[in-house]
Amino acid sequence: MSGAVPAAPVVFDAQGLDALIAALADAGREVFGPVRRDGAVVYEEVASSADFPKGWIDEQSGGHYRLRQEGEAYFGATLGPQGWKRILHPPKQTLWRTEGTGEETKIIREPLDETRRAFIGARACDLAAIAAQDRVLIEGPYRDPHYAARRANLFIVAVNCTRSADTCFCTSMNTGPKATKGYDIALTELDGGRFLAEAASDEGLALLATLPTRPATTDDESAAEAGIDRARDQQRRIDTEGLPALLKERPDHPRWSEVAQRCLNCANCTMVCPTCFCTTVDEVTSLDGPETERVNSWASCFTVDFSHVHGGAVRPGAKSRYRQWMTHKLATWVDQFGEMGCVGCGRCISWCPVGIDITEEAAALRKEGG
Amino acid sequence: MHAPDPHTDPMVPVIARVTGRTRELSDVVTFEMEVEGWPGFAPGQFNMLSVFGVGEIPISISGPVSDTTRIIHTIRDVGPVSHALAALSPGAVLGLRGPYGAPWPVQAARGRDVVVIAGGLGLAPVRPILYELMENRDAYGKVTLLYGARSPAEILFEKELGDWRSRLDMGVEVTVDRATNAWHGHVGVVTALLRGADFTPANTTAFVCGPEIMMRFGADGLTDLGVAATDIHLSMERNMQCGIGLCGHCQLGPVFVCKDGPVFDWATMKPLMRIKEL
């Protein structure tokens, strides 16, 4: 995605949006984007701009997510429950299977998924989340080849946020609301179903050149920036200054016990978190024969089994499990990967059934003695 | 069959064949196996072993590094996979990935005194250290092995312990938590044996392996005698699904036990091990 000289931004309308989807499909890509289903915005395959949740926006707060009709924007609704990891690092991934038994046992690798895909509507925080998963699953000493194959075949059309949910805090995490890297094309939605588009890769540039566009005016560019500024101002904040050291120094802060009283250990936060990467390997045996399959599934550090060793779990207490999750996101991730593991998307706040708010917990842990 | 290539599909095992099996204790067996293209290992490293149809677990390698063909593991039958592993007999096939993990820095201890402290099955992961010390005895200073078992019946590698004990160039002390009438040796925690051991703390490298509580007391005891925290090495155990830093289960604060460890020095572990349920 690097090396391209950014061309001047262009503007297109809804017709251009359809042309973009069509061009990606013509290039042999499965095109995914936001779709309204079962009362939420989810990422699914789209055929045209008519599939986008035009005229819908989201209302989010601790333990609360609702869609309602307002305005005319295609990308007015911010983040739904699912991150793009559902596609790139799916909930279940077969690793290999066996054929035959005993001396005849053969191990058959699961073929890599080399489907060419395009994501339309990835927000800046989610781009940061994809980059965070890249660091874990591709850039370590060992790589997950299934994830790497999906990643290598991905084209990303980012959408800069011009509206934030109440739960968003990407500004504090320095990941948004404007996409700065990790995309091929970035769109900013302007009034009247128009989009300001900028390419950041050769492929993105070539694709934009095939669409019905006109050069952006300075008015278009200021309107786009004003929209992004608006989104920036609508956010909650988390003070990250010195936070990693502080969290690691306070494993016995009374707030951990207090939040453990409210936390249900349901693991929702880890399922909706776009950076959570943990998996468990399970053996799946056939009922009618000796074949077996090794399957990787999403795991959560909120379960007791997660830390099981001979003799019992390392983290049997709810307090230590919540502490593990939050300290990992905001502190030890920095030791491991050089950055925080939280991108400020706020999904864990909205989808927590009891509305536990990571920004509020971080603030409480700053106070001496709770 | 090839050795696992970390850059292609590190989660796919190779087929290994069991070539020998020895019962050590009522619930512990040592088995040997072979894999084509085995790259060899360093003391303290582990393999992910798979029993097809049952599952996969990390097991440290307990054989000598100098044996480049046989891969030796000592396993206690405590869960479904270790139970199935312990039941494998010569000729059986299993899956192997590895070797993985940061090793004991044994060769870096050449020219120094070496103290090995092991508890229970913790003698298995340090046995490759002892083989290296014996094979290159002149390269090291004074060598001490302190071993603790729950009872005389649970003393692992008893014959080898006897052989080592009879050597004049090595101090070996064994203690048990619960003695029987026939037991004439030490009774009590293994760390109590440190007091009588002969080594120069400022020039000592220590390798400690066993239950966490024992490793903590062992490291504290060594520190009290003047061994530097960076010269005390422990091997940590955590849940591991992948062994290669992808599954997240083995995290211990800032470290992944599988890829940053399992061997860590006490300077790194002390602040982490004092935190309950980290």
What is the gist of this entry?
Chain A is of the alpha+beta class. Chain A is 33% helix and 23% strand.
Distance between the termini of chain B: 40 Å
Estimate the helix proportion of chain A, in percent: 25-40%
Shape of chain A: globular
Strand arrangement in the largest pleated sheet of chain B? 10-9-8-7-11-12-15
Low-confidence stretches of chain B: 1-7
Biggest sheet architecture of chain B: 7 strands, mixed
Strand order of the largest sheet of chain A: 3-2-8-9-10-11-1-12
Q: Tell me the total number of β-strands of chain B.
A: 15
Write down the Rg of chain B: 18 Å
| Classification by helices and strands of chain A | alpha+beta
Structural account:
The complex is a heterodimer of chains A (370) and B (278). Chain A is of the alpha+beta class and 370 residues long. Chain A has two domains: 10-233, no CATH class; 243-366, no CATH class. In chain A, 33% of the residues lie in helices and 23% in strands. In chain A, the strands form four sheets. Chain A has an eight-stranded mixed β-sheet, sandwiched between helices. A four-stranded antiparallel β-sheet of chain A has the order 7-6-14-13, with no helix packed on it. Chain A starts with 9 loop residues before the first strand and ends with a helix. With 278 residues, chain B is α/β, with parallel strands linked by helices. Chain B has two domains: 14-100, Beta Barrel (Elongation Factor Tu (Ef-tu), domain 3); 107-273, 3-Layer(aba) Sandwich (Rossmann fold), CATH 3.40.50. Helices cover 20% and strands 30% of the residues of chain B. The termini of chain B are far apart. Chains A and B meet through strand 6, strand 13, strand 14, strand 15 and helix 11 of A and strand 14 of B.
